[in-house]
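Re: Re: ligand-bound prediction request (bumping)

Still looking for help on this. To restate: I need the protein modeled with D-xylitol-5-phosphate bound, output as structure tokens. Inputs repeated here so nobody has to scroll up.
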Amino acid sequence: MEVAPSILTADFARLGETLEEAVEAGINWMHLDVMDGNWVVNKTITFGPALIRSIRNRLGPDAFIDCHLMITNAEETWSQYVDAGVDLVIAHIEAVDDAAALIANLHAADCQAGLVLNPDTPAEAILPYLPELDLVLVMSVVPGKGGQSFMPEVEDKVRAFRAAIDSQIADGGRPTKLMIDGGIKDHNSAQVADWGIDVAVVGSGLINDRGTIAENLAAINRALAQ
Ligand code: DX5
Ligand code: ZN
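Reply:
Sorry for the wait, this slipped through. Here it is.
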């Protein structure tokens, strides 16, 4: 299972150094959480395309960058994130009207397409789009901030996506990746790997006062190896 850092608990004044620390620790996938001050329940603003462009410039072309759009108007503004240099745009199914059109637009712009669902949204909301999706993201917290507690009740939904993706791949379809986001730490990383997660977003479990990113990643990898 791959680990992608979320930078919400980072010191934004030192973001470049933090991201380079992640790259030096062997991390290649960066997960950028975009909130518009409106869509998430706590009405927070994080950052937008300008900061993402700076991150792309700083990390260079080899890093894989996704943006997790927690915004009301992803269908209007997705191209700003493509122009900023992301490899994958992930939009909330609860916030889009025509997911098929958004996926087609992203692919036409040579960008990977992902959909994400909240803890209380059923898998059926996304399953019809699976054949066209590069990634499905299951939220294991209510989106809005880093450092929240993991919600183990999403297990059945994760396993349903794993089974659907495995059968899609067995039929020669797209190898859609399965990601989880929220509350992942060293103590539950093996659990979600066992559910069939390909990529775990880890924010406060990687970027915290207790250790360096390399030390925290090593603890996760030790847990995964057991
Ligand atoms: C929550 C964000 C997550 C979050 C992860 O709204 O989508 O990416 O920052 O942070 P942790 O790992 O601390 O839950
Ligand atoms: Zn996220």
